[in-house]
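Field reference: sequence -> structure
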Amino acid sequence: MSDLPGIVIAGASGRMGQMLVHTVLKNDKVRLAAALERPGHDWVGQDIGIAMGGIELGVMVTDDTLDAMKQAQAVIDFTAPEATLALSKIAAQARAAHIIGTTGMTDAQIAQLEPAARHCAIVRAGNMSLGVNLLVQITKKVAAALDDDFDIEVIEAHHRHKVDAPSGTALMLGEAAAEGRGVDLNVVKNVARDGITGARTRGDIGFSAVRGGDIVGEHDVLFAGEGERIVLRHMATDRALFAKGALKATIWALDKAPGEYDMLDVLGLSG
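Structure field:
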């Protein structure tokens, strides 16, 4: 067996899962140790390469998380909140880095990752692209420079298959804007407008979501004032950039002490 660090891909049949498999296979610093799927999935028991419509790779799709993690030093996880929480416990037991791109997690669910982080490195981010994380930093600075005379709206667009809204990236941007203003996002967040809503509340941070077609990911942060608007924008045209960012985070986390990290740590932008 290769001495390269082994990587497990959770949710291997999904769009991001398959992209992550390809990304790991093309990298010469790591190896694909296992491909995970939920019990009962059609791919379980098949070679991952064959299941994806390609050549045999010698890695079988499994639903045995514990066995998969015995062969690995890290797991990349773009699944669902409950699946992520279950996986975090096993990653902690295996002392394997857990790279989490799962979106839609509540604050209570995120808090449940803390015990696992005592035993392994966890890198969690709503978006793992360099551009988005730079946008987060810029959003914080602009929000800090502008007062409540400027209304803030985070506008995001994704493909028709995305199941959560606002997106994890939109919430990252909202958190950055709230932090810049020194307020609690949970207090000023406005995510639902329908019917006679009345005038906008001063200081609110609004969210608007578009779902359609094959949009990979587009995010605008709008600062709307009297007589002027400032728009900060990031557009993703290829989801491969998220897979590349996740693998960068994985390689970075391999030698890190247990704890909770994010992409700003990975990119050296924290602090």
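Note: The two ends are 40 Å apart (CA to CA).
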